[in-house]
Every structure is written in structure tokens, then in C-alpha cells.
């Protein structure tokens, strides 16, 4: 014999319910239906707390915790792994190429103004040291004074393009382009401005923080008009 949650024996409860049903039957079907529904409604009520209690203490409810932790930690570990690489690359780019770490050469440019002079030249910088170094900026240009720096003849420089750091690995190269006011005509030629053309066997090329270098063309001499030159910024891309 079982006891319900109110401490009443099931058999007694059943008898009481049966008697109540007989008495109420004569009063109408509406009273009967409301009385019979009352015991049925107790069943889900008693089951509902049990279900809620089970879900709150079930071991399965703790399962998402270890699964969630690795997925959250994984991006952090990935970010930490990337950071040193970025920092180390920035550190390598900090040193400016010293005056003794570069070799400089010059040759005529393929793309140059119309005329009979040199017109334009490409200046090439090679890192001859054992360590990476950085070049940045636009060059200064002067006609060399035959071995006497005080006799150098600075050219008026017009810059083109924005300057950004260029990191050179050992044996790495960078370039600038010099474009002159072109000499016209044959023989000694002439300048459209009416000035006399000037010829320099060598030029002195300077870069910010990296010193100055005297350089000759590998295929001629620098001939120009008006002591003017247009220069590009140092670039890792060789100009034409």
C-alpha cells in the first residue's frame, strides 16, 4: 500500500474520490469534469520539480565548461605567437645603413627626356655589410669638385614620391632615379634656357643618415642643363 505526498493512503483516497463522484453526478456534468481533472493535474506538478532538480544537478550540465575554455584560450595563444615576429622585424629595421656599409653605382636610365645628353640616371645602393640596414629619403646631388669636396657644385633638387624606410638585407639593393634638364642639339649641345651645358665626370650622392658617395656613370658622363635635377625617393623597386 502506497502513501501519497499528503500522507493519505491511496486506497482511502480512491474511495473518497469514488464517493464524491457519485454525489456530484446528480448535480451536473460540469462539476464532474472539474473534480476528475484535479488528481490528473497533480501528476505533472510533482514531476515538474523533479525534472528541474535533475537538470540543475546533472553532471552533463558541467560538460560545456572544459569545451569552452580551450576555444577561448586558443585565439590568445595565436596572437601571442604572432607578436614577437612583428616586434623582431621592426627591431631589424631600426639601424640606418652607415657610410661604410654601401656600394654605389650609376648607369643611364632607359626612360629619359628627349635630347642628346644623359638625361636621366639610375643610382644603385648595395648593402655590403653582414647585417640588415635601412635607407630612407630623397638624395642630395652635387657635381663633384675633382676630389675637393669644398668645390662641389650642389644641384637644385626637386623631389617626387613619398619617402618610406627600405630595409636592405646583406647584398640587398635599393635605387633612386635622377632626371636632369636635358641637353639638346649635336656636338657640345645647348640648353633650351640659353645656359651652357655642364658635364660632370662624377656626382656626389647623399642620403639622410647614410653619408655621401662619389659615383661615376658606368657608360658616360653626367651632362645637364640649369643645374637642376628631379629625384625619386629610395625604393626597393628598380626604376626604368
SS content category: alpha+beta
Strand residues, percent: 25-35%
Give me the oligomer status: single chain
Order of helices and strands: HHHEEEEEEEEEEEE
Percent in helix: 25-40%
In the predicted model, the low-confidence regions spanning at least 5 consecutive residues are 1-94
Q: Could you explain the architecture of this structure?
A:
It is a single chain. With 240 residues, this protein is α+β, with helices and mostly antiparallel strands. It folds into two domains: 10-91, no CATH class; 99-232, Immunoglobulin-like. Helices cover 31% and strands 28% of the residues. The protein contains three helices and twelve strands; from the N terminus they run H-H-H-E-E-E-E-E-E-E-E-E-E-E-E. It has helices at residues 10-25, 29-57, 64-92; strands spanning 102-108, 120-127, 133-135, 140-143, 153-154, 156-160, 166-168, 173-181, 198-200, 202-207, 211-216, 222-232. The strands form three sheets. Strands 1, 2, 6, 8, 9 and 12 form a six-stranded mixed beta sheet that branches. A hairpin with a 3-residue loop joins strand 10 and strand 11 (211-216). Helix 1 packs antiparallel against helix 2 (29-57). It is globular. The protein starts with 9 loop residues before the first helix and ends in an 8-residue tail after the last strand.
Supply the key terms.
240 residues, alpha+beta, Immunoglobulin-like, 2 domains, six-stranded mixed sheet, four-stranded antiparallel sheet, 12 strands, globular, disordered N terminus, DUF4232 domain-containing protein, signal, DUF4232
Amino acid at each position: 500500500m502506497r502513501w501519497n505526498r499528503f500522507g493519505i493512503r491511496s486506497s482511502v483516497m480512491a474511495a473518497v474520490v469514488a464517493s464524491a463522484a457519485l454525489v456530484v453526478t446528480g448535480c451536473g456534468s460540469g462539476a464532474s469534469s472539474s473534480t476528475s481533472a484535479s488528481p490528473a493535474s497533480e501528476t505533472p506538478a510533482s514531476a515538474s520539480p523533479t525534472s528541474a532538480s535533475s537538470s540543475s544537478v546533472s553532471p552533463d550540465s558541467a560538460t560545456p565548461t572544459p569545451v569552452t575554455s580551450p576555444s577561448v584560450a586558443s585565439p590568445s595563444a595565436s596572437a601571442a605567437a604572432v607578436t614577437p615576429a612583428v616586434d623582431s622585424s621592426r627591431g631589424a629595421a631600426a639601424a640606418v645603413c652607415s657610410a661604410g656599409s654601401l656600394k654605389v653605382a650609376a648607369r643611364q636610365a632607359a626612360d629619359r627626356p628627349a635630347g642628346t645628353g644623359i638625361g636621366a640616371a639610375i643610382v644603385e645602393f648595395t648593402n655590403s655589410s653582414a647585417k640588415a640596414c635601412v635607407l630612407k629619403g630623397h638624395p642630395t646631388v652635387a657635381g663633384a669638385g675633382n676630389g675637393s669636396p669644398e668645390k662641389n657644385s650642389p644641384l637644385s633638387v626637386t623631389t617626387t614620391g613619398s619617402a618610406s624606410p627600405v630595409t636592405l638585407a646583406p647584398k640587398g639593393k635599393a635605387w633612386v632615379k635622377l632626371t636632369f634638364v636635358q641637353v639638346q642639339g649635336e656636338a657640345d649641345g645647348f640648353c633650351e634656357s640659353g645656359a651652357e651645358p655642364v658635364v660632370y665626370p662624377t656626382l656626389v650622392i647623399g642620403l639622410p643618415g647614410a653619408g655621401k658617395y662619389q659615383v661615376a656613370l658606368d657608360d658616360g658622363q653626367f651632362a645637364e642643363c640649369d643645374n637642376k635635377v628631379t629625384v625619386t625617393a629610395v625604393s626597393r623597386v628598380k626604376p626604368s
